[in-house]
Amino acid sequence: MLNRRAILIGLCFPLMAASPFWEDGESGIVKEIIDGDSFILESGLVVRLAQIEAPRLRDDVPISQKARDFLANLVKDKKVKLKYGGLRRDKMGRALAQVYIANEIWVQGEILKAGYARVHTYIDNRSHIQDFWLVEREARRNGRGVWSDPMFQARFATTEALSGSEGSFQLVEGKIEKVLHGETLVKLCFGNDETKDVCAIIPRQSWKLWGDNNLDDFTGLNIRVRGRINGPQIARITKKGRNLPAHGPSIWLDHPEQVEFLII
Q: Are residues 178 and 66 located together in one domain of the fold?
């Protein structure tokens, strides 16, 4: 049977913001706000708020400016403390941090609670995910911030619902009709035609992260997955002679925290 506790899906822990569990990092005054989830300290260090994603700043997306303004009102000209629970720097040298004001106010939590970001974990930054999910869920149920905008709400796991969303970060919900095992991947199929329907793909290098869970137990379950949407793939053979089967729009699942069970 699928060990739901082991893969941190659907847990109901009280919000603790995990402050004692993060590793202490730099402190500094926030000098400049870049967008809804990043800012610059007086030291020049660029900080990216780990494990959340606010709308990208665009003139044609009003909620993105509101998200930036919310972060500005929260931290601009204030002293903040950075804490770490995963990879500390990205390829651009930005700090990937949990951020606290006066070591008490959890900035990610405040943003999620107001609905100005969605939870977005990475394989190297996915710690204490249950705290993030609980705050996001409250904002979603109350239609706050991005959750009042169809652009950011969870989508059905159908090709029609995901049309035009290639390359964007989305939350996708549906029932797993079947699970297919290949040499290099496991496909969670949201339909009976695996060559055309939406699927979630777990690559071989990530299988160990799922521990002793039997992925076949996903069959028949309603789940929510989150990640970047990839376009459909036609069947082809790689230069190394590997057969790549056809599939519809897909989401790459390289860590278990991208998945939540849904109770329908």
A: no
Strands 95-101 and 169-175: unpaired
Give the pair of three-digit tokens for residue 79.
Answer: 């002293």
Provide the residue type at 226 as one letter.
R
Please indicate, yes or no, whether residues 109 and 188 belong to a single structural domain of this protein: no
Residue 37 identity (one-letter amino acid) = D
How many domains does the structure of the chain reveal? 2
Q: Are residues 180 and 136 in the same domain?
A: no
Phi and psi, residue 229, nearest 5°: -85, 125
**Does pTM surpass 0.85?**
yes
CA angle, 141 then 18 then 261, to 5°: 40
Average pLDDT on 251-255 reads 95
pLDDT tens digits, 88-111: 999 999 999 999 998 889 999 999
